[in-house]
Amino acid sequence: MATNWCDFERLANVVMEQFHADAYSVHGPAHWRRVEQNALWLSTKTGADVLVVRLFAWFHDSRRENDFTDPYHGRRGADYATKLRGELFQLEDAAFDLLYYACEWHTDRDHSQNVTVGTCWDADRLDLGRVGMIPSEEFMSTDFGKEVAKVGSFYPFLNEITDSLRKIDDR
Prior knowledge:
Helix content: 55-70%
Number of strands: 2
Structural class: mainly alpha
Strand content: under 5%
Oligomer: single chain
């Protein structure tokens, strides 16, 4: 049985070094960090696999060739994750399959019933403000993602999120 782990510092450096544009590209590292934060906050209520959603944040747009139309970028990001698996992170097969699917289909599917995949997609969609779009609860997969989209911010939930994170830290 594999042990799940990630060297996030090395992973972030490696993924950023290969990216086609600068850190502030609308699909680049600044976006990945916001998606990671969104995913962590969402996972406090969704119960998603935290390692998978964090990895999704770093891989889902990592192999974009441009900031415009790039229909196969999700699959390229998933394939890139495959390449780095075992070197910079490790996931058991079932968890890796969720990561691969979430990356591959994040722009081509509307919803997922799987809580981890849904959390990945909601975390990405809740950062649409970066391109002038308002996230819609209609396109969220999780109940918490819908709540956040409905009010337009994580702000009303920060106390609950903080309490949940403290409970995790106390374990």
